[in-house]
Amino acid sequence: MDKINFFSEDINFSLTQEEKTSLWLERIAESENTLIEEISYIFCTDDYLLKINQEYLDHDYYTDIITFDNRDSPEDPIESDIFVSIDRVTENASDQNVSFEHELKRVLAHGLLHLIGYNDKTEEEQLLMREKEEAYLSL
């Protein structure tokens, strides 16, 4: 099995350039001196992700991404399941006036950056997260 894998649940969606996207995500991790054991990106619908948000996080709202860190320790190589709502990505791309592909890559990087240790709770953290996303989108 590869380090980075892509699946879909409750939606008919497949990534067009899986290998290229995997290599790009691995380069992000390398740039941040982080090892990846395994990441599973699971593409799904808004409703599917809402159920996960309600069941596991006690949140009752739609979101574009939920990242589950499956490591025993933050120092271990990354092991994660990352759920991505294709509905949210589509809507956000339209709202931001960017292509679907651009927004999808931003969201994929966003989940990985959380696992690397970047947060987005405060305004300062959000700014740094956006800077990192933009820098890696240009890789």
UniProtKB/TrEMBL annotation:
Q: Which GO terms describe its cellular component?
A: cytoplasm
Name the InterPro entries for this protein.
MetalPrtase_cat_dom_sf_prd (IPR023091), YbeY (IPR002036), YbeY_CS (IPR020549)
Q: What is its main location?
A: cytoplasm
The source's domain of life comes to Bacteria
List its EC numbers: 3.1.-.-
As cofactor, the record names:
Zn(2+)
Among the GO biological process terms of this entry, one is: rRNA processing
**Which terms does the record give in the GO molecular function aspect?**
metalloendopeptidase activity; RNA endonuclease activity; zinc ion binding
The keyword Ubl conjugation is annotated on this UniProt entry: no
Q: Does the UniProt entry include the keyword Cytoplasm?
A: yes
Q: Which keywords, in A-to-Z order, does the entry hold?
A: Cytoplasm, Endonuclease, Hydrolase, Metal-binding, Nuclease, Ribosome biogenesis, rRNA processing, Zinc
Q: What class of enzyme is it?
A: hydrolase
Pfam families recorded for this chain?
A: YbeY
Where is this protein localized, as stated in its record? Answer: Cytoplasm
Instruction: Specify which residues bind Zn(2+) according to the UniProt entry for this protein.
Output: 110, 114, 120
Per the entry, the cofactor note is: Binds 1 zinc ion.
- Family label: Belongs to the endoribonuclease YbeY family.
Which HAMAP family does UniProt cross-reference here? Endoribonucl_YbeY
* Function, in words: Single strand-specific metallo-endoribonuclease involved in late-stage 70S ribosome quality control and in maturation of the 3' terminus of the 16S rRNA.
User: What protein name does the entry list?
Assistant: Endoribonuclease YbeY
